[in-house]
Write the structure tokens for this entry.
Amino acid sequence: MFGLKPIPVVLATVVFWFLGFIWYGVVFADAWMAGHGIPADQAGGFDIYMLGGVLITLLQVIGLAFVLTWRNVSGINEAVKTVLTMWLLLALPIIMYDYIYIPAHNSTLLMIDGSYVLVGWLASAVILAVMK
């Protein structure tokens, strides 16, 4: 798979996606739905869009794996530093578009989404570094 080891990529994807289930389905479910104005009775189960979420997660993990490989990262510390830099300079600014351009400027959603990507990227990077 593009010169990457498939087992670490798949494992990191599963862990990252499962973190999303915990993040959005359990820990921050009420706050996230309220932030988007979704009534509790309209909370959805597993549907076709969830498969899109798996694909998005896989693409992020592949991207992280490429960067870690290109930088020849060896070890967890280097992987964490790389991911923190990428999150701060790439992911967070992209996530902030909604915060800036949607009139509500919902700080709760920004923190939920931004922290999920950070934790998911860190978990993925650790898996990829350990299983290099």
